Amino acid sequence: MIKDYNSVTEVVGPLMAVEGVEGVKYDELVEIELQNGEKRRGRVVEIDHDVAMVQVFEGTKGINLQETTVRFLGRPLELGVSEDMIGRVFDGLGRPIDNGPKIIPEDKVDINGSSINPVSRDYPSEFIETGVSTIDGLNTLVRGQKLPIFSGSGLPHNKLAAQIARQAKVLGKDDKFAVVFAAMGITFEEAQYFIGDFNKTGAIDRAVLFMNLADDPAIERLSTPKMALTCAEFLAFEKGMHVLVIMTDMTNYAEALREVSAARKEVPGRRGYPGYLYTDLATLYERAGKIVGREGSITQIPILTMPEDDITHPIPDLTGYITEGQIILSRELYKKGYEPPINAIPSLSRLKDKGIGKGKTREDHADTMNQIYAGYASGLDAKQLSAILGESALSDADKAFAKFAERFEREYVDQGYYTDRSIEETLNIGWDLLKEIPRTELKRIKDELIDKYLGNGEGTDE
What we know:
CATH topology of the largest domain: Rossmann fold
Structural class: alpha/beta
Number of strands: 22
Largest sheet: 10 strands, mixed
Shape: elongated
């Protein structure tokens, strides 16, 4: 039942207190009519006896306590979903901003959704090709996985996000594939970059964009990822599509959460973030996955910038607990000019072993992945030793590993943002690099694979 009240008693930041309410529920959608006839939207975030605390999406500036009418609509915030959303651009509250026709929804869905029941989950096991060698070859993404990208201020995570959105595909199948892209707290320039890149490359034809700009209200930022995930769930589980959800920047989302928490005068946790930050992030991340008996799937790539490059900061720390690994961008590789500057050593995909091998990628994938990782780690150690003791202190094997590490960064990592490498190309480049290492040091690859892909005469035997 819709109820109107003229009993606003307090406005603090993005929050507004309404007294004397009856039958109002948590998360209920609210319509606020100002004295000049302007209408804004909000939602109930707290109820204490007959006092409701309302978050105002468009901000509380200009609200007159005596002349403001608050209408409780008796339903949560919903998104009108339709397959026609593909190819469109929306704001953080799901309203079209691309001057296209109005969306005629097939259904209206509560944006809060729910995590997938663990009993109903299907185990992720199907390879997704991103076209980025350091992800496909070493930290493989599988369908239904949550694999975040940990970046830092000034690093080109947006370019990597656009590249993955353009290039991601499921191999060997004609399954319907879509990308849902949610941007939170980005600048107008960044928004134009994403929209322009998607339009120029044609990626917009299979994408849905939700854009929340830095000058938009922080409250709207909290709804943006929920809008995107609601759209993704509709496309995946109602339309049988395989959906990749890219969310950037989760740090801006967490900052908005902290701002609202402070306005509500809640007891702060680590670094001032609310104590429920872990729970809140989990409600977003756990909406990814596959459901037994359903065709579609949702794969998530959340992107976050680590404040001061600190991986122990609460946002990356808690994200790492919830998700299945992380891709980490390196400031050192970025300074060298490598694109994309993905640091293979600390990066990890916990489900990579499930999506590779014969019938999925290639029979040699697992062995070469382990050998390349070990070779690169040994090469970095050798280069550090050379810097301290001089190159004369290195053994022949150390020199080979050091050369391998240099070539790995130059040829494997540095592929640019517009090079789409197939998994075959990535594996072949890996074998070409492994020629630098003496055969006796290729201890993580089966002999029959070495004979097949390197040949008896290839490589060094010492």
